[in-house]
């Protein structure tokens, strides 16, 4: 059998070389023009998040420009292009099974039978279908979470090996994970290889002509010409509305003939980008059938096997490195793909989050090329300082406390924005030290490109819309996905509230509707903060962004006042009361743990110190009316102190700590829930200055003195973890003397807590 396969491969290779030469001789001029156009179309991706004044300031610090040159440079700066000369994706075999894919396909087909019942029924069926796909037990492995998890090294598959060994490939990934950038890089790489040496094979597989198709553009043309096939479309296809060949001497008919000949002879790599990005839901099944028909007809092994044949018969032939036979790569978002998966034995892979090494490589790549474009613009003869500039950011990812940052930067899209923020830091710190300020800078960087969309929606209105959508998802949708219809409703409500008036004339209502449609369109077409995750389903690019905008909603006073909450105080008191009540409403909801902490951080940054103190006092005392094992307000404030931009006054911090230590003594935490002492110890260990020592002294020296239960709880806190003595450092000489005076209260009921502490 092995000898027979080798003979087949040798005959096929000889035949392929002969056909390759004939094809190239026949279409040389057309193919060379096409490949040059591919290299031009896919040479780079724009970076619109860098502003001229920021770049000018950074350039001056690294390359010492004169004031006149710096000003001139800032005016000329139009943005930056990041070249597509390498890819940063890593793949893992997709966890979904063939059973799961066939079940989701069966569910879709079964539901479509009911679509003819009318528009209302059709909408209900579509919504119900998506809900089942997200929640059904057999689909659990398909629900990808934003928070990455550590994976075994053996699960990681190099994309080069995939291209070497597989003929029929499906690559799945969330928005911003690098699917399209990978497809564009691969087209550019193959085109450059073909033109540079015109050899028969590359370093990974038989050399094939790359053909990149955007399924969304094919679907748009299909809606106008229902009989169009994918094969007929090739050669007339576009990329982002641009013609594939910008050469008046090359006609579309000549290009179609050339590319179709390469496909007929098995000399093409066809990449179908965005299989799930079909704007009209009725077209989904039709396009899937068109794709499957094309694959079954034109993407076969040299011996005529196709992906839909029996897996046991075709397994030995699924090898793209064999000479002859086209190769196929399909990209799609995860959720969108599984509603209409392809049948057959496709090799499915999911783009995994970038690991630390890939993150560092990307940072080097990003900073080097941004600096190189600056050097080229200024015609400088100085060394590129990009590596030195990015080194400090790479060091940030080595810090244990920045594990959340590494998670957020695990996709190329988000990491690029993190690089943009770090690029503009000139105060010696690579990133803002407080989480709320870092997230603010990242979001601002992402919003900088909004003005380039020529949108009628202002930035402030956009933030309002995103905040309303974020809190709706956070409160009601555990999947993190919102349906397009619901999103439009929230969008219209947000715009209405933003205008702060009731609009009754049709023209104004029509304009609001147009803006809502425009918002949805931009979310669907562009990867930014909120993005399409599947057909009519949208979600934030990362959970952190959802939490940040939820925080904005929780702290936006104008919005809270418009919602007419039952609070009638005036000015500052009204503001404090409104926000306190809203945050307190979510203190016991685990999903709001991060948004509440971010909200406290934002308040500490934006409010006056007096208002912040008033807020903290009211937030702490909301628990006083009920018997509570844990004063949640005080615990939340102390837990997030390290995230605060500005501390409240010492008296406020002392008040919060008093609430906690009194509850600890009253409810005997040392016996009931000793882990709470560990949580508080960790928080106190992050306090700045000597605040903890000052609080202990203040607590012990007040009159009347605290009761023995409270003093015992304090001693338990200071003892810390057995064998460790870090907490004892909070106890100064004065506090030790006061504790010594209380030792007469020690007895077996409090397990002689004071004596046990003082002998440490």
Overview of the structural elements:
This protein is of the alpha/beta class. The chain has 4 domains: 9-41 and 88-146 and 163-351, no CATH class; 44-83 and 355-447, no CATH class; 450-549, Arc Repressor Mutant, subunit A (Orthogonal Bundle), CATH 1.10.10; 649-758. The chain is 56% helix and 7% strand. It contains 34 helices and 13 strands. Helix 14 (356-378) runs antiparallel to helix 15 (386-396).
Please specify the SSE layout and strand pairing.
Layout: H1 2-41, E1 44-47, H2 52-63, H3 67-76, E2 80-83, E3 91-93, H4 98-112, H5 119-135, H6 159-165, E4 168-172, H7 179-197, E5 209-214, H8 215-222, H9 230-233, E6 238-239, E7 242-243, H10 252-264, E8 268-273, H11 283-298, H12 311-314, E9 327-332, H13 334-339, E10 347-351, H14 356-378, H15 386-396, H16 403-408, H17 412-423, H18 435-447, H19 459-476, E11 482-483, H20 484-499, H21 506-525, E12 530-534, E13 537-540, H22 543-555, H23 557-562, H24 571-585, H25 593-606, H26 609-621, H27 632-639, H28 650-666, H29 669-672, H30 675-685, H31 691-701, H32 708-719, H33 733-741, H34 753-758
Parallel strand pairs: 4-9, 4-10, 5-8, 8-9
Antiparallel strand pairs: 1-2, 3-10, 6-7, 11-13, 12-13
